[in-house]
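Q: I'm a student working through a structural biology exercise. My instructor gave each of us a protein and asked us to get a predicted structure, then write a short paragraph describing it. Mine is Expansin. I'm not confident about reading structure output yet, so if you can add a plain explanation after the tokens, that would really help. Here is the sequence I was given:
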Amino acid sequence: MSIVSLLFFSLFFFNLHCSLCDKYGGWQSAHATFYGGGDAYGTMGMWGARGYGNLYSSGYGIDTAALSTTLFNNGVSCGSCYELRCDNVHQWCLPGTITITATNLCPPNPSLPNDNDGWCNSPNQHFDLSQPVFEHIAQYKAGIVPISFRR
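A: Happy to help. First, here is the predicted structure for Expansin. I'll explain a few features afterward.
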């Protein structure tokens, strides 16, 4: 194989790898809210979609999230893991990241505007977390925070 062919071949695979990293490994923007109280174990959010049953006794604990319609993608994203971090531009963000499993749909409410309680409406990218998990990346009083996430 000539050096030119080898260089072309290497550049092709590098570009393919980089485009896949952007799609599946790069950070994207979204928002996060929380449901339930400080004791998420007894909330209705513990029951997942797609046959997960009781998420706590199945081993998922509270490290799960309901995804907005856009992210849920008709259930295709169910079972996917996401790493989330609060965007530090927000005054109530805490350092660090969390890893959650997508187990449910955050129901849209088209009667509400997308930027005022209609967080799960399409085309928003949104994660609805249990309160204890939310409080690993942001303070309770924030209620909703801008986040970055990657799959």
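A: Here are two points you could use in your paragraph. Residues 30 and 125 are 5 Å apart (CA to CA). The first strand starts at residue 28 and ends at 35. It's a good idea to check both against the output above yourself.
Q: Great, thank you!
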